[in-house]
# Entry
Amino acid sequence: MLTYVLRRLLLVLVVVWGAATLAFGLLYLSGDPVNLLLPLDASPEAREDLRRAYGFDQPLYVQYGRYLIKLTRGDFGTSLRSEEPALDLVLVRMGPTLLLAGWGLAFAVALGVPAGVLAAVRKGSLAELATMTLALLGQSIPVFWLGLMLILVFGLELRWLPISGAGSWKHLILPTITVGTFVTASIARLTRSGVIQELRSDHVRTARAKGLAGRVVVYKHALRNAAIPVVTIIGLQLGALLSGAVITETIFAWPGIGRFVLIAVSQRDFPVVQATVVVFALLLALVNLIVDLAYLWLDPRVRYA
Amino acid sequence: MRKIGILLVFILAALPAWAAGDTLVIAQGVDATTLDPVNHQETPTGNVTAQIFDNFYRRTPDGKYEPWLGEAKALDDLTWELTVRQGVKFHNGEELNAEVIKFNFDRLLNPDKPLKYSTYFKPIKSVEVTGPYTLKVTTAKPFPLFLTRLTYFWVVPKQYIEEKGDAYFANHPVGTGPYKFVRWVKDQEIVLEANEDYWAGKPKIKKVVFRPIPEASSRVAELMTGGVDIITNLAPEAVDVVNGSGVAEARTVPSIRNIFVVLDVKGEGPLHDPKVRQALNYAVDKKAIIEHVLGGNGVPVGCPLNPYIFGYDEKLCEPFPYDPAKAKELLAEAGYPGGFSFTMGSPSGRYLNDRQVAEAIVGQLAKVGVKVDLRVQEWSSYVGQILERKIPTDAWLIGWGNAQFDADNTLFTLLYGGTVEGGPPQTRFSYWADPAFDKAVLEAQSVVDQTKRQALYKKALERVRAGAPWIFLHQQKDIYGVNKRVKWQPRPDELIWAFDAEIVK
# Structure
């Protein structure tokens, strides 16, 4: 078990190095950031000065070498736009994004799992039809459209909730619904099919035959087994949540990493983009590891060597 | 039901409470990148720092410049005497004097650590303190733009920066301006409070908050709920909605930005012929574009300058009339009676409905037989190609905001062709090379006398009019959404200066 975890952690490092290298290469192919940093009428000498100050006048392998060496110390350099440490800028904005993604996920699980169970238990009823229709809608509605509709209804018409910015729990409600809806729908549909399958299985029939209450059968016997694919999808959806957060953050002016990195990309702020890519790669690799470990807990038959 | 009622009351009690009382909330598309006033390149950042800092010369709302933290006088072509305003204090109590101004120049001119505004002060050779409030500035060559460049000279505190360092200063700014820095929550809000001891008078508004709201429709929604007071870059399509809201209204101002199509005049193709280029200018219906594509938010122009800019000449800048018959005639004279085809680039989303403007031009040129293959690109790679002169098209639509309000910034940067012997090499933008034009523009760079400069620019504009190196389109209008409770008029230089604003109800 310990060797497995250690091996996986080593793999995480490889993933991070790969992502860092890819980010470095692609950014340098995209062109010179100095042009975007200075006014259009800046003199060629001014451009040269800045290029030298940032080390862009060095050969590519020197720049890459320096980049990797600094990376091992957790140093991504300073942002070309604000001249602050890139990693700090990214981490400051990672908090709100993780908060939003976390709430989105919690919302999705809290709503999606019971909805899926309900649809499975009441198969063929109106409740199932309604739940699954909503789930289908939830998966088909574009994130930006949902966000704008929520703003229109709850912000402009009803004036119940703040429609942009952050600062209080109320600011979280609309973005959470926006970012969580797609995942809620996926979880609901997956839970439903998983539970239906489990309810048909032998061990559930046995449990029922033993005279256990319907609720216990569903939650203890069927749901636990049905949860494995759901956990997998939660792990996979974290990526979707984080990328959905880019759109949601833009619509609701949420101070997260999503739109920050969008600007950084368009301005070719190399250090910031690189730091973001590496932090995201690390995060997703770790989440994958956690998901794999969660299988162990859910299904004692799973053993990792 | 009762539970829902309680929930509703709870939610209603929690409405955003910002834009109320004596707080002015300004929403821009992006957050500031730094609060160091001389080390950024973005208007949204400049709008924040302009509240906290003062510049040595300031730009008046009608685009003229005037002394502000001090005055400069030309002693001869190469020497300037600067007198610093007395009795001005920074927010931390530090006093403004000649030493502080010298520190500011040294900071800008330090070659080891160039700041983004350093480029504006390159011609300065040395700065010498001559008294407690006086300095002498010597330039390497005549520097007629010195006064206008002093509007970029935002004064920062010496002691504070020496003690705390540049990085700390950029996040915790201290200036002499009308508002003091309170806090900055990145991408969320920047809060400022009135500097009651401001040397130019007490600000009328107590608190100013800047909020970044990137999505245009969210900005409009916030404006209409009263969550913010001023929003920038209101889309022409949203003007009616805002005006009909009863809460806010659209206010516009012709900006310093001109929109035009640069024509690649080098080589031997049709665009090489001035007659063809004139024809293209006659073939584009500027008024129709402004009315139908920009919702009226533009003013047609017939030269690279606009009325705010020193060197502008009303007669030489008159828009080319829409005259397709004349265009056809000129094309026939040039040997293209059946028209010709060329490629044109355009950015999308950088200027007011830029792509749609380009599409309209394509349609109008087709009417005189000129076929245009339009290629739309994302801004950062578009501008990169232009700066690196790797432009894949024969023409490209671009805008130019002459933030220096001086013809040199447009004519030299964009049109100078480097034909003058011993002069600087060709600049980046245009392939147009007209010796008489180049001579006039270059000469204007070394004349401090403004009347003489005006005459030189007139000569230059005559050449531009004849050579028609661009399709001249329009001067863009900036559109703001403003809550009706705010007394404030937009300025051509895109600056939102809260000191000029007032909350009236």
Remarks:
- The CA atoms of residues 155 and 161 of chain A lie 6 Å apart.
- Chain A touches chain B through 54 residues (CB under 8 Å).
- Chain A has a mean pLDDT of 84.
